[in-house]
Amino acid sequence: MAIDPKKHGMPVQEPQVRAHNFEEVALGYTMETAVAEAKRCLNCKTKPCVSGCPVNIQIPEFIERVKEEDFEGAYQIIQQTSSLPAVCGRVCPQETQCECYCTLAKKFEPVGIGRLERFVADWHNAHTAEAVTKPESNGHKVAIVGSGPSGLTCAGDLAKKGYEVTIYEALHSAGGVLVYGIPEFRLPKKIVSKEVESLKQLGVKIETNVIIGKTLTIDELFEMGFEAVFVGSGAGLPRFMNIPGESLKGVYSANEFLTRSNLMKAYLEDPKTPIMKGGKVAVVGGGNVAMDAARTALRLGAEKVYIVYRRSMEELPARAEEVEHAREEGIDFRLLCNPTQILGYQNPDDPRDARNGFVTGIRCVKMQLGEPDESGRRRPVVIEGSEFELDVDAVVMSIGTSPNPLIKSTTRGLEVNRHGGIIVNEDGLTSRPNVYAGGDAVTGAATVISAMGAGKTAAKAIDEALRG
């Protein structure tokens, strides 16, 4: 049978429609499309795609079940190693992981592994209502700091083995970056809620509004009877450029902008935590978070949204799919540009404006690419005399994040690197006995699936340490 050289396309909302709503952009495969895509898989004996998956999903096996239209069987294979298949099928960068290693990709487009994973997870959620069975307790207690992808994965793997697990989340909803960072149009909150509910059925307790390092310390968790602690607190400390004007009203970090919109409902008509609606917005940065912020601003009613990035389209770190969606929706990409100042004015009639003015624009310089830097990408170099200004009403800084120093500063014997990331060994063990860490708290901002992989690794090590 001849193999279709191209993967089956993902149906999506029309750009002019979706740019004005928060409904999911990608609509998902139909059953017929999923089976047809699965039949493109060569079912290689060497399984190169599995080596590209940080949680080692048995990809050929689950795809074989899809071919046979045994969708529940496919789900059961995935969930053996992945706690969040509906999430990963939507937000994982499969093109640089599992699909990158697909044998078919040597001549054609790879199998749509991520799209099939999403289909299988959605089919299971739509057709299966039976509750998860809580395992018998093994008598051991473990605390998890943070309810993002690494924390949820670690908690799920340990709960399945009978551990009494409690997750401590700083915000008022569980899910971490999955709920505060990723917009509804990419990852619906009901999907995250369902995954969290499944963990609760396994016996996992979730305590929200608890800031470890302030409400409780790691030392106090051990005093409460926990035998091990996993730190999956993410990288929520935003970075700024330290250029003039960053203290003006209307300048946000991408973390703040997305959290207000996603978790604190700033999209409502009369929100308690408002953000800029309407006007013109510049988003500084070129990663997935920058795309999310720009597309969110558009949906909040911005009349014009710019992406300002200092390298070219080839160096843009965001997923190609997200960039394509942003361009289709009308985001204006100002590439090879770098901000030097945020412009503003003082309003003498507004008593709130005693210290800082309001954003009126952003001054940039044009760049050209020089020799490669330590990351291997060509270094941007300023073109002298190339300054120009963009007229904007808000600026969103999306140039990266670092781990919050709070846990380090309140925990004895916990070593971190120069970027603030917690130092761990290959099992996720920190310099502090029985304290493990993983995800962005260790690596800095990275992918959901890599954080999940770190959670799995730590769960295995914790189990071996506590039960031999």
Question: Can you put this structure into words, describing what you see?
Answer:
- The protein is α/β, with parallel strands linked by helices and 468 residues long.
- Helices cover 32% and strands 17% of the residues.
- The chain is built from 17 helices and 16 strands.
- Strands 3-2-1-4-16 form a five-stranded parallel β-sheet. Strands 6-14-7-8-9 form a five-stranded parallel β-sheet. Strands 10, 11, 12 and 13 form a four-stranded antiparallel β-sheet that branches.
- β8, α14 and β9 form a beta-alpha-beta unit.
- α5 packs across α7, α6 packs antiparallel against α7 and α8 packs parallel to α17.
- The longest helix has 20 residues.
- The chain is globular and about 65 Å long.
